[in-house]
Amino acid sequence: MLINTRIPFRYIFRKVKNDLLSVLCFSVVFHILKLFFVDYLPIIPFQLPAILGTSIALILAFNLNQSYDRWWEARKVWGAIVNDSRSFVMQLKGFTRREGDAGTILKRMAHRQIAWCYCLGQSLRGQDPIAAEQTRHLSEEDIDFIKTQNNKPFALLMLHTEDLRNLYQSEAVNPFQQVQIDSTITRLCDSMGKAERINSTVFPVTYRLFVHFFIYLFLVVLSLALVETIGLFEIPILTFIASTFFLLEKTGKHMQDPFRNKPTDTAVTAIARTIEINIKQVLQEEEVPKPLTPEKFYLM
Amino acid sequence: MLINTRIPFRYIFRKVKNDLLSVLCFSVVFHILKLFFVDYLPIIPFQLPAILGTSIALILAFNLNQSYDRWWEARKVWGAIVNDSRSFVMQLKGFTRREGDAGTILKRMAHRQIAWCYCLGQSLRGQDPIAAEQTRHLSEEDIDFIKTQNNKPFALLMLHTEDLRNLYQSEAVNPFQQVQIDSTITRLCDSMGKAERINSTVFPVTYRLFVHFFIYLFLVVLSLALVETIGLFEIPILTFIASTFFLLEKTGKHMQDPFRNKPTDTAVTAIARTIEINIKQVLQEEEVPKPLTPEKFYLM
Amino acid sequence: MLINTRIPFRYIFRKVKNDLLSVLCFSVVFHILKLFFVDYLPIIPFQLPAILGTSIALILAFNLNQSYDRWWEARKVWGAIVNDSRSFVMQLKGFTRREGDAGTILKRMAHRQIAWCYCLGQSLRGQDPIAAEQTRHLSEEDIDFIKTQNNKPFALLMLHTEDLRNLYQSEAVNPFQQVQIDSTITRLCDSMGKAERINSTVFPVTYRLFVHFFIYLFLVVLSLALVETIGLFEIPILTFIASTFFLLEKTGKHMQDPFRNKPTDTAVTAIARTIEINIKQVLQEEEVPKPLTPEKFYLM
Amino acid sequence: MLINTRIPFRYIFRKVKNDLLSVLCFSVVFHILKLFFVDYLPIIPFQLPAILGTSIALILAFNLNQSYDRWWEARKVWGAIVNDSRSFVMQLKGFTRREGDAGTILKRMAHRQIAWCYCLGQSLRGQDPIAAEQTRHLSEEDIDFIKTQNNKPFALLMLHTEDLRNLYQSEAVNPFQQVQIDSTITRLCDSMGKAERINSTVFPVTYRLFVHFFIYLFLVVLSLALVETIGLFEIPILTFIASTFFLLEKTGKHMQDPFRNKPTDTAVTAIARTIEINIKQVLQEEEVPKPLTPEKFYLM
Amino acid sequence: MLINTRIPFRYIFRKVKNDLLSVLCFSVVFHILKLFFVDYLPIIPFQLPAILGTSIALILAFNLNQSYDRWWEARKVWGAIVNDSRSFVMQLKGFTRREGDAGTILKRMAHRQIAWCYCLGQSLRGQDPIAAEQTRHLSEEDIDFIKTQNNKPFALLMLHTEDLRNLYQSEAVNPFQQVQIDSTITRLCDSMGKAERINSTVFPVTYRLFVHFFIYLFLVVLSLALVETIGLFEIPILTFIASTFFLLEKTGKHMQDPFRNKPTDTAVTAIARTIEINIKQVLQEEEVPKPLTPEKFYLM
């Protein structure tokens, strides 16, 4: 997540460098063409780029809106993960009898929940889901088990269900409480699936493509029209206009894919850290980590 | 689902071939008319196509948005199917007592759930719902039963309910657990119904029709206006503009119907495969299939 | 529901006949005025209709979007009715003990559910809710009871509750199961209320009115502007443009009211038929009706 | 709720009278200024009002959409109240044992529910919540109790909870049934809170203000531009355009506040009456009132 | 929350002062440039600012809409807090047996719920969450406990769970009732998490940035175009147009962040006060505070 600070100009510029270069190219080419072949070039009436400009602005605005919705949905899913992780541990603590090994199971489940959050975040970003930080919170057997499984975060939920079963069979929770905690696990499973859905569903490719093509069509026609009327000034003005359109297009593109290990990502590691802090405080542990701080201009 | 790769030009071109041809036709005809009957043709003021262009761009953008929502809803429904299939098997495993034939019933239900996903996908696409792949996971009696039923996926859910009843009567699950699992089956039944709803509800036909008609009206008026001002150049420019509008219209049309056995479909077979993998890992089976890989530029 | 076939031209034309006629009228009148009183008519600058055209296109597009949402909500409500009807019967079958007269009650409730769907559809369309088709599925006492009640579909749900009470008192269902089935009845009651809400809430009348007035304002100003520039051609061009706007307005109007016994209605009878088929197959009855087929270009 | 009939012209005109008057004023002033100070007035290029017109139309259309959503949300809340009131009474009837004074309590609760609906409606509209009509349905003690409470409708729900507690303690309902009915009361409490939220949350004031200011800015600039080109005709044309914009703005404003005791309100009294009829029919009472009929052109 | 009264002009003006100043600057600069270097300045065709104006209006309108949705979501979250706080206390009162120390626990929980609302509001606004007003309602031990915790409102919910556990163990509530109350606490935990999500998720920074940049680009181009056509009048007209765009942009910006201790905030303190009043009336306490009154033109 980009934070509310001064974003480095280089970061922004790098995103649209290539597109701006090609715009620069054709606007220069048209300028030269005009000098030598003035009679063969059409005199584009200015209303033509106006029609195209309004149309592409519209399509782009809707596209941005859809991308924004996708980004916000991803954030909501991780918000639900925060809420359900907290409720999960609070329910475990409020329901289980404090006898026998129930306390041990409870602690194991709570720590596993912390690991699950980190693990899901890494896995969505295509990184090793059992990296250093979170395995600290898992028992040896748990690690051995999830190594045999493809979908690591799902495997952790399976272990949760197994432990809940044990709690029920040792009568540490009653049937109602089991079902209530199971509902919370189901919601966690839902959130995981939703994040995977957003991650694995490509934003309609042709839609993205045609919007890009449409912007170029608009800029070419605009360039042809401007070259007639304002001559050399056309080059900087066109570049500015092009950069605005391309920047907005790129903003949309980044919001469409919120788990790509980029600065514009949903801050899943920071969220997992928050959950870790909350859960450890419920368990009244002494070593509670600090919240994650932003790296330069973004928070991962 | 189209994947994030280079889409073949031929695939895209084929979609708008016919419409582009007719645009080419009338732009040539207007050009010839102008040469011979210049005095009888009206001099269309350029603001007229501007009004129409803005209007159709607006209507088209909203139409695209509604189509996008429909496509995303379809994807969400299948996301819910993934989540509930996983929860279903996890609940079965976490709840049922491991005594008597409960283990056999559990395995049968889990395999039936895999079959259900494939079966629903095929059925939505209008293909034989009991094709090779999924029947592997069904028992003989199950197959015999669903052959007598019209709605095959619904019939599989009925068998789930019957098996759940058996589990309850043999006291392998307690009353709360029965009701909790029943809620999961109800959600699966909901998702099935939602997918059927999207599939069987035609996008308002007249709406679609008038949008198409409106694009033509705009292009004809634009052609008449351009023929006056830029002559022969009108033909390529109009063709480019027309192609953008028609491509966006077609993109919308494809998103409206996400279960038509086309490359733009929701990737139901790939999703069913993911569910198969997940469930088989929960059952700790040895033979787990690989995820489906894209065929050229799309994933079914 | 209009189906994906060739819609008869007459059907479409009839919708906008009157509006087109009045447009034709004033465009001819302006033409004549111009011939005789040319000096007194204002020379409308073409940007004026451009502003108005863009504005009304915008308002219309939003209006269409709101109408579409309303139409889709109505369809979703009926989708939920399909799902809950299926779940209802499946739950009844999966829960009730097969002893005593539980079987009879179950069958009666399932048939009543079929009748409820038809009855609700008829009632929403303002037709006699106890017409021939559905009463076949009701017992004599049921019919006598609902005749005394104003809201027939609601009365059928009351009878459901009464029968569920009987099942519980004869211990055919346990307390959890009673509450679970009651939740399904509550959802059916919700869907019924939602459909009634859409049906009884008039789309904001002034909004509808001002949009209509705005279209006329635009067309009058456009006509005045065109009469100056393109003369006689103004008449066909204006008619075409007007027809597009009016057709889109009418499309919105029809989507706003999806239960008016018109071809653009939500296909409630066809949906009720689907439910009938599904429920009868759950009951494994022999006589299962065929799905409803479209009448010419629409499905009721 | 305005009904689908001929809305009196006076009602509509009164809404925009003041704004139209001020538009008339400045358009006349500009006209006079032009006659005397023609050299000092700027010649506004017509594209300037075009830009402003498109922009304000956009902002207005979005504003209307947000207002519409708010209006529809209010209607949905009252739809949920209808559904939950019906379910509430149906559950009470289906669950409670018919022994002891359970029947009396049931009847009291059902009547209180009727009173609650009227009471909430009155209270939202800022009228005396214990007016004549609904107190008929309340017992003496109930009235005495709610008189001591600030939030009358909430106080009635408290009494519901108390009675439900009595039913449970006298074993007229079992624990599951108590919880199920309690869930319904919770949903009623939610709907009440939602209606209060819509009522007490002012639509962002500055947003509303700037939209109003923007319309004026547009009209002033348009007036300056028109005065140059079409002279005296400017006055009627500007008035027409202004009235369209102001009427749409007012439509939005009315939809933003659906509980203000105005003709555009959500028809809460009529809805409460519907609930009264439904509940009385469940109780099989003999005296069932008639549905509320519209007063002239609206339904309260 | 700004209330529906006359907003002081100074408050509004201060928001856009800086931006207006820079607009004034460059419009004056262009004017001077034109006087001296008239031959070197391009003659911007007026359609160019028209294209840009329409585009930025569009992007801005969508931006406003997204901001509005965020603001409304924040308000909805606090609406849910009102509803669930009321239901929570009503359930406690309706469920717990009136024996032993259950009454004391109930009262403590109800008072803690009041404190929680104030505490969450303060905490969201970055103020000391244990300020004077609310600690009045907490016991000594509670205050000592939450002082050791990072997330104060979450700590209060933990104490709720602990007390609920005590109620269950002393058999003051039965298992179903415990689970039902636990569901309400879970919903409160959800609402808290949702408010934190809105508060901690920065609105996409680059999006906000490019919109701001786009407005400037539009104003510069418009200024260049106006300077040609209307001379000195350009300065006031541009300032007016600029102020409209900047005011709408700022309105959006304020709605994006509804918990910043500003007049445009969601009125969390006033809402907490309402909850306090409601809960104290449920407990039938004698000292009930008055609702919060607006400070000048806003309500906190």
UniProtKB/TrEMBL annotation, chains A, B, C, D, E:
GO cellular component: plasma membrane
Keywords: Cell membrane, Ion transport, Membrane, Transmembrane, Transmembrane helix, Transport
Pfam families: Bestrophin_2
Membrane topology label: Multi-pass membrane protein
Residue ranges crossing the lipid bilayer per the database entry: 20-37, 43-62, 205-224
InterPro entries xref list: YneE/VCCN1/2-like (IPR044669)
Tagged with keyword GTP-binding: no
Compartments in which it is found: Cell membrane
Annotated GO MF terms: chloride channel activity
Similarity comment: family membership: Belongs to the anion channel-forming bestrophin (TC 1.A.46) family.
Name of this protein: Bestrophin
Organism in which the protein naturally occurs: Pontibacter diazotrophicus
